[in-house]
Each structure stands twice: as C-alpha cells, then as structure tokens.
UniProtKB/TrEMBL annotation:
Reversible hydration of carbon dioxide. GO terms for molecular function: carbonate dehydratase activity; zinc ion binding. It comes from Hypocrea virens (strain Gv29-8 / FGSC 10586). Gene3D superfamilies: Carbonic anhydrase (3.40.1050.10). This is Carbonic anhydrase. SUPFAM superfamilies: beta-carbonic anhydrase, cab. Binds 1 zinc ion per subunit.
Amino acid sequence: MSNQPTINELLERNKELAKTYTPKPTIAEIKSEGHPLPKVLVVTCGDPRCVPEQFLGATAGEIAVFRNVCGHVAAEIPFILYMDLILHFDEVMVVHHTDCGAFQFDDATVRKVLKVRAPEHAAKVDEYTEFGVITDLDQSIKEDIAALKSSPLMRKELVSEIRGFAFDIKTGLLREVEA
Ligand SMILES: [Zn+2]
C-alpha cells in the first residue's frame, strides 16, 4: 500500500502551509522594487530524482526551470520564446539524466499500447511522431541543443549561450556534453 498523498491530502497540507506563507511580489512589484530576475533557464526532466534547484544549489527565483519528459526542448520552444521576452535570459542549460524513464519504452511500443486502447483513433496515434523516448543520453542532449539552436525565432545572443549537460543521479554531478 502506498503512503503517497492524494490530491485531497495535499490540499490539507496547502491549507496548513498557507498559514505561514510569505506573499510573493507581483510582476509590477518586481519591476518597481528592482528584484533580480533569473538569468539562467534550465530545461530538464520532471523526474523527482532530477530536481535542478537541488543539484544546482539554486533557490527558487535564482533560476527559471521548465521540466517535462526527459527535458526535451522541442515542445518547449514556444514557451522559451515567450519567457525570454519577459526575463531576457543570459544562458540556457539543457539537462538530461542517467536512468531516465525515457529509456524505458520505444516509440513503437507506446504507439502499440495507444492503438490497443483506442483502435478507432489509430491514425491519430500515428500523428505523434515522438513520445520523448531516448536510446542514447549524449545523443539526446546533442539533438535537443541542435533543435533549440536551429530555431529561427530564438534571440541570436541566447543561441550562442545554450549548453547541454548529463546529470548523474548516482554521483549528483553534471557532465557537459558538447553540441
Ligand atoms: Zn527523466
């Protein structure tokens, strides 16, 4: 039996935490009071073993973080473009990690499962070309850096400051992967 919390249990925690909550500044307050904005955007996996604030020793607000399956950038590009308009990032870190769940299945297996689930929508399943699956950690990082760098809508100054890293969940260390 799992002891992991349900939504309702989490809502109870939220009520308790709100009692000692410190109000956050609005964007208008951030601008007028001169609060520092994050200069580094980290795109990484949503895996609970891969939490950038932990492995980078950064507090919330020091870095901007996008997390999804594996830490792929392609689906995030519109959001990166938007957030960069607001925050004007200086650098981007693309971080994938060892033992990622994205190694577990291949695209064909995912498609097969979905087609069994909804055979009447098999054609729709084929429209999804990728599910974030990876087979080679370094290659995955290199492909994502290339995807971001080749986006014609990215700011040129930012494109030259995109770096890729592999996070080792056993040592806690980041290893740079050259594009
Ligand atoms: Zn992962």
